Amino acid sequence: MVTTLDSVDVVTVGVGWTGGIIAAECAKEGLSVVGLERGRERGTEDFSIVHDEYRYAIRYELMQDLSKETITFRNSRQQRALPMRQMGSFLLGEGLGGSGTHWNGQNWRFLPYDFQIKTMTDEKYGANKLPPEYTIQDWGITYDELEPYFDRFEKTAGISGEDNNPFWGQRSSPYPTPPMKKTPLLQRFETAATNLGLSPFMMPSANLSEAYENPDGQQINACQYCGFCERFGCEYGAKTSPEITVVPTARETGNYEIKFNANVVEVMKEGDRVTGVRYYDTETFEEFIQPANVVVLTSYMLNNAKLLMVSQIGEQYDPETGQGTLGKNYAYQILPGASGFFDEQMNTFMGAGALGMTVDDFNGDSFDHADLDFIHGASLSMTQTGLRPILHNPIPPDTPSWGADFKRASIENYTRTLNVGGQGASMPHRDNYMSLDSTYKDIYGVPLLQLTYNFTDQDRALHSYLTERAGEIMQEMGATTVVAGSPISDYDIVPYQTTHNTGGTIMGADPATSVVNNFLQHWDAENLFVIGAGNFAHNGGYNPTGTVGALAYRCAEGIIRYSREGGSLV
């Protein structure tokens, strides 16, 4: 038996950064909001004993239970897709705060080039710079149009940083808090990069350099540099996350309710409007319908796409014909880089998730690509995140991978290695996409999402070029041995890489080439909004969170306007 609940103004599917921002902004305007979160409630008080690498970083305490729902994966359409049985390449969050609880805290704005990549690339290099199977397109919004929303998110999160990167877009105001500590290791990177004619700057960080009260009155504490950020919640309330900022802001209005253990399986639609969502209580398996005037998909981008597919909203992308937009333009990231082994010991076990220095000289279109067989690039950084002993066992080349020699080399080099790494932009390709699996289903009987993805020639060329640049920086830093990252071949979903998946519900100016408009309003249902990194038409050289946060504030503005006026927002 299905229980139909009282209707509300807005329902969000997922309560992480996007769901929290939508809830806070709409609730402050007097709209009634319900957030459906399939995980449990949690907060700073739950992380008082979080310094347990095995529990959180190895056994994934804060992550999605893949025995209930996962994805299937294949490199090409010719292969059989198989379920991902354990966390590997990316880590899917679950519970209040979502991935915003266990992120590292690097907070970037995508570059002006990213939002108009098709136009700018064609103007500078000609329309044939990339072969036609690369489906790059503009986002339907410019950096300047999105800048006020970037500014809003950074002030909510209290981001610590400095505005001395010559390659990124103009800012309307300084960072809310100063940059983090420039440690001796980061000074070494800064000196080497400067000697090479590059422009290093401190990484924008959601691990705050000082205590901060945001515009909504929420308190964020100062980072203690304990080195337990990525895969962990923050025991100090110093890593900005939804459950210490936007979620309490929404709750304080009295217009917001969160229903935990609520797994949404369908967006309900009648004609050209949606009417609400259907969900299961994950503990009792009771079935509910939550009616709403506006439905907002704010879960992880993989699940947003899946919900649209199982609800048959939008046209599924077909790689054979190129028709359809839902599931199109899935993109990941590549990780060029180089490691260095040094003679002296360093405090590599100390740090914070976004404590680092970066150069953007090889990101976006900051350098000339005329004679290169790829576009875009990567931010190259050295981070001091706090290296933990289980997952960090650096050994020089030709060292055995087990036994006494391995143990000796691992202990020797634990505090004697550094890494310069890049987040390489991934361009969409005709054959990289998401669809529904025809064989496997989740615990609720819903088809699993199927991911078809492989690295491309563009990826391999960019990876090779940027790995060389990283090696040059590491050599200039004085490493006795420099080990460049191995060339990439086929994408493997098993080893962890990044949780920076994009595409599938892309935004744009034309319903023929996008799923949502630039207010993240669905082209096929005016009271349905879809927000997350799935809106990105390609992946960039940064973490996606800052850009997702900006889009969420724009989306919230659109929902409030729609609630008052109705109709299409563009």
Structural features, described:
The protein is 22% helix and 20% strand. With 570 residues, it is α/β, with parallel strands linked by helices. The protein has a single domain, classed as FAD/NAD(P)-binding domain (3-Layer(bba) Sandwich). The strands form 4 sheets. Strands 1, 2, 3, 9, 10, 11, 12 and 20 form an 8-stranded mixed β-sheet that branches. Strand 11 and strand 12 form a beta hairpin. The longest helix is centred in the last third of the chain and has 21 residues, at 545-565. The protein is globular and about 65 Å long. The protein starts with a strand and ends in a 5-residue tail after the last helix. This is Gluconate 2-dehydrogenase alpha chain. One of its GO terms (molecular function) is gluconate 2-dehydrogenase (acceptor) activity. Residues 216-329 form the Glucose-methanol-choline oxidoreductase N-terminal domain. Keywords: FAD, Flavoprotein, Oxidoreductase.
Short key terms for the protein model shown above:
570 residues; alpha/beta; 22% helix; FAD/NAD(P)-binding domain; eight-stranded mixed sheet
Mind telling me which CATH architecture this is? 3-Layer(bba) Sandwich
Largest sheet: 8 strands, mixed
Structural shape: globular
In the CATH hierarchy, the third-tier topology is known as FAD/NAD(P)-binding domain
| Rg from Cα | 23 Å
The number of domains: 1
Protein name: Gluconate 2-dehydrogenase alpha chain
Domain Glucose-methanol-choline oxidoreductase C-terminal: 428-552
InterPro entries: FAD/NAD-bd_sf (IPR036188), GMC_OxRdtase_N (IPR000172), GMC_OxRtase_C (IPR007867)
Domain Glucose-methanol-choline oxidoreductase N-terminal: 216-329
